[in-house]
Amino acid sequence: MRLETDAQGTQTEDFSVGGSTGRERPSPGTLAAQDFRNIPDRYQHPETIGTGGIGVVTSCLDPNLGRRVALKTLRRKHSQVTSLRERFVREARVMSQLEHPNIVPVHELGERPDGSIYFTMKEVHGETLEWVLQRLAEHDPAYLANYPRLRLIDIFVHICQAIAFAHSRGAIHRDLKPENVMIGAFGEVQIMDWGLVKVMAVADPADDGAAPPEEGSPEATFEGQVMGTPLYMAPEQASGRADQVDQRSDIYSLGAILYRMLTRCQHVGGTDVKSILHQVKNRQPTPPRRFRVDHHRVPRELSAICMKALAKRQEDRYQNVQEMLDDIARYQHELPVHAYRPSVYTRFCMCCHRHPIVRMSAVTAVVLTVGLFGALGLLRHQRMDDMLASARIYKAEGDAIAGQAMVLLDQQNRLRSAWCLKEPSPEEAALAHRLARLHQRSQANYDISCLFYARAVEMTKTPVLDFLCCLGTQEDGYRWRTSERRMLPICREVADAYRRQIDYELLAGNDSEARRLHELMGSWLRDIPGGDQDFLLWEAGVTQRLEARSTLRLVVDKPDAEVRLYQLRGDLGPPDLAQPDQCGGSVFSPPTLRSGSYLLVVGRGAQPDVIVPVLLDCGEEHDLSVHIPDLIPPGMVYVPAGPALVGGVYSPVYRQREIEVDGFFMKQFEVTFAEYLEFWFAEPDSARRAGLMAYVQLGPGAASRQPCWEATGK
Fold first, then answer.
1. Residue 58, number of CB atoms within 10 A of its CB
2. Hey, which residues does 417 pair with through a beta bridge?
3. What is d(CA 154, CA 160) in angstroms, rounded to the nearest whole number?
4. What dotted CATH number matches 127-345?
5. Residue ranges of domains in the chain
6. Which terminus of the chain, N or C, has less C-beta within 10 A?
7. What is the pairing mode between strands 478-479 and 474-475?
8. Does the pLDDT at position 635 exceed 80?
9. DSSP 314-328
10. Strands (DSSP E) along 276-433, which ranges?
11. SS3 state at 666
12. Mean pLDDT, the chain, as a whole number?
């Protein structure tokens, strides 16, 4: 028999006559003369197949029986350490007494002439559970097909049965992990590496050793106060409380293995041993139910079993492995498990699945009930269709009239922008009259259509079908109710009707009415998921305008300019120039602002500041490009180019309108009488000087105006 190991860690064997290959096969005469004494040096052709912390495992040929066995030897540097020799012997003796199909049998325990001890055991062929789980995590198609969830649970059951048998004999493994589980080519499961085994009735001197260093591999086995593998050890092991380690510690390790099988990941994170030990002691793992594996969620029952085994307190876990096996068996037979109490509906479905008579009775009752409610639902659906047909007729009429009103409103806005006088023109007055009539008609049609839509929505509510919605599938993580599926198209039509009305009110400048309609539309769509992208973008724009948010971008042609922003807050007085609301550079783009008046103060070192007034309307995007002169004359200020509002309430004739004004200089203060008299006396021409005289009317009843000063300036 020849052992071969491939690149994936899979061991295979090659059988031949006499239990050896052609190179090793003895002749008949040799077999007759062979020495069958059990001498330690009889093992031939050693091949190293594994190394551990204190031992080395080799595959050797036993010429007495013509088979290959696994020979484990204590490392030479540990041969003189009494505690390690005792542990090595204990491992061999415990394994030899645990006669179970899932525990590797031991053949021989001996000592070589040089003082090193060894024992031989069955050579296990196959691959480790760790290798299988790694391939599953990498979505290997072959392993996904060969190791579905049901087979993994069956493997886990074999592991639990072996550990339950060991616990019944008073042995605790203390180092359970996927690397120590071998899976054979024919489904056999073997628990390996009992080096840290603890016999409950025997004191272990190694438990009083020093704690290991903080750094190391998370999957390496530690000895001392902290004994085991960090990723799979129980909290009491991670805390170094060796006196509290019992069979419930192995149950925690079984829970960690089950967590890995169910979720393909570890129950704790971290890359260094210190952080992993801290999480094992303090952090509660995420329930497996929250994971999706191969597009399916982990069953709630298995998740509850796993979390009960991973409880931080020993008294909260399963008290023995048999309790855990019983729960898994109940799950496999579709019975309620003790760790999880399912809903009434789930328990009913499980009962129907187990009992055909109950299932047939339930099916008959459901068919009769569905037939009755189906007939009632058909009548209700017909009435709903009639309501929808009427609602769509009125909505279509409202859309047509609203379209005409939008065209006329656009014409009216153009006329108003071209007409400067406050008194409207005859054409504008006629348009306003037509607009009022069309708006009234469209509003009436929309109101009637909304009433029909509301009646139709009431008829879409089907509590019975909503109760049975759990039989449906989920879409985008949301479980749809039947009434929602029927209601969503109706709500979208209502939203479209409100959208047309809101567009009209925004074009007409009626923001308060648009805000009211927007709130009504929100009541229709508040609890309904879904919606197309165009509608969401439109609603975002409307919300921005109704919330009075605007954007501003100022570009100054001097790179060394500094900009300060001040908001003018009505009657609260002038802003405090020492405390600007926002500051920026030559390219200034503050976050969204509310509508209102602002001052932008542009400074350039020693040069006088330039003030730029800005008026922001609702939802306006305002771009300004400001030119700053290189030199501002003393006593003068520079007014930059930009828009200016003229007319309005202070003009008896003209409407308010916006015009563009070029940049200009003006004096910082008003001209005083003394300055004007100086200018007046400087004029040499007396006739021109008389034309520059200022006059005043001394009273309401005065017949004429009088000059403000005499020729001498008095």
1. 20
2. none
3. 10
4. 1.10.510.10
5. 2-122, 127-345, 360-546, 549-667, 673-707
6. C
7. antiparallel
8. yes
9. GGGS-SSHHHHHHHH
10. 292-293, 296-297
11. strand
12. 81
Using DSSP bridges, classify how beta strands 198-199 and 171-172 pair: parallel, antiparallel or unpaired. antiparallel
Residue 475 pLDDT more than 80?
A: no
Distance CA 627, CA 630 (A): 10
Q: Find tokens 């279509």 and name the residue.
A: 396
The pLDDT score that the predictor gives to residue 317 is: 92
Within 10 Å of residue 354's Cβ, how many Cβ atoms?
12
Smallest CA-to-CA distance from 484 within 456, 454, 468, 462 is with 462
Tokens coding 337: 């498990």
d(CA 565, CA 233): 62
* Global pTM exceeds 0.85: no
DSSP state of 312: S
If residue 584 lies in a helix (H) or strand (E), which one and from where to where?
Answer: strand 582-584
Of 404-413, 517-526, 577-586, the poorest mean pLDDT is in 517-526
Q: Output the 3-class SS for 119-159.
A: EEEECCCCEEHHHHHHHHHCCCHHHHHHCCHHHHHHHHHHH
By annotation, the residues acting in catalysis are 175
In which band, very low, low, confident or very high, does the pLDDT at 205 lie, cut at 50, 70 and 90? low
Q: Which H or E element spans position 108?
A: strand 106-111
* Domain 2-122 and domain 549-667 have a common topology: no
Under DSSP, the state recorded for 81 is -
- Specify the residue for token string 């040499």: 684
Cα 452–Cα 456–Cα 461 angle in degrees, nearest 5 = 155
Residue 7 is given by DSSP the state T
| CA distances (Å), origin 504, targets 26, 417, 499, 534, 689 | 103, 18, 9, 18, 60
Judge whether 608 and 569 are in contact, CB under 8 Å: no
CATH among 3.40.225.10, 3.40.50.880, 3.30.200.20, 3.30.1330.30 for 2-122: 3.30.200.20
Nearest to 299 by CA among 266, 268, 271, 327: 327
Q: Which two tokens stand for residue 366?
A: 């459901």
Single-letter amino acid code for the residue at 561:
A
3-state DSSP call for residue 14? strand
3-state secondary structure of 216: coil
Euclidean distance between the first and the last CA atom of the chain, given in angstroms as a whole number: 136
Separation of alpha carbons 534 and 260, rounded Å: 44
* DSSP string covering 404-471: HHHHHHHHHHHHHHH--BSSPPHHHHHHHHHHHHHHHHHHHHHHHHHHHHHHHHHHH--HHHHHGGGG
Closest listed residue to residue 13, CA positions, set 25, 24, 22, 4: 4
> What is the C-alpha separation between 167 and 247, in angstroms, rounded?
7
Return the CATH architecture of domain 549-667: Sandwich (2.60)
Backbone angles phi, psi at 374, to 5 degrees: -65, -40
Q: Using CA of residue 573, residue 579, residue 580, residue 585, what is the dihedral sign?
A: positive
Structure tokens at 685: 């021409």
